């Protein structure tokens, strides 16, 4: 987070569980206004669980969450969305039986007002492929187009911060590049980004700060350029010796 910047989203010692299985243990993060933060880790590390807990889809068992200075730990997910905290889930989860435009309008559902035609036009200006397919069923869209639709749907909620869960999953390198260019464009428009991404190199290059989770705990955190240069992170998450596993590295002194 930039020096002296007030956090837009702040989680402190956040813990969560699925039944008796603890999935997050005292994880903290701070995302400033206009920031891009990446969350990295192996499968099962707790990345999606973190986003679900921040949005309230999974109740926090400990710790606190503040958004725009307000305590939101016990708020319902819809209330968090109304305040501008929005999530694009893994796998896109568009409603394939609805048209592109109907999917976009669903994104405005948590709001207390009716979306205007100009808001839809702004989405179509940003996503020209969607404009051409506005009356087509979402089922006929390509994977990349469905990802754009999921992001466009999130934009209809008037987000201040968007949490993206694995936006490149299942996409070709070309479509992945398009999605990351879109993420940069949204951030340039003033929207903060919290990014969970399987491609650690892309995520670190696209973000300013990063948090690495291992078994529900913080293994590494810091400025993304510094983590890109960190030999421990490079060996564990960007390719390296098999014996240099994330668990081994954490035991060797990575500071949470």
Would you mind describing this structure in some detail?
The protein is an alpha/beta fold and 256 residues long. The chain has a domain at 7-90 and 160-251: P-loop containing nucleotide triphosphate hydrolases (Rossmann fold, 3-Layer(aba) Sandwich), CATH 3.40.50. Helices cover 36% and strands 25% of the residues. The protein has eleven helices and ten strands. The protein has helices spanning 47-55, 77-82, 100-107, 117-126, 128-132, 143-155, 173-188, 200-206, 224-229, 231-237, 246-251, and strands spanning 7-18, 21-32, 36-40, 62-67, 70-71, 85-88, 161-165, 192-196, 209-214, 217-223. The strands form two sheets. The protein has a six-stranded mixed β-sheet, sandwiched between helices. Strand 7, helix 7 (173-188) and strand 8 (192-196) form a beta-alpha-beta unit. Helix 3 (100-107) runs parallel beside helix 6 (143-155). The protein is globular and about 50 Å long. The two termini are 16 Å apart.
Task: Estimate the mean pLDDT confidence.
Answer: 88
Query: What portion of residues belong to β-strands?
Result: 25-35%
Order of helices and strands, N to C? EEEHEEHEHHHHEHEHEEHHH
The top-level CATH class of the domain at 7-90 and 160-251 is Alpha Beta
The CATH fourth-level homologous superfamily of the domain at 7-90 and 160-251: P-loop containing nucleotide triphosphate hydrolases
Radius of gyration: 18 Å
Query: Which class do the helix and strand fractions yield?
Result: alpha/beta
What is the CATH topology assignment of the domain at 7-90 and 160-251?
Rossmann fold
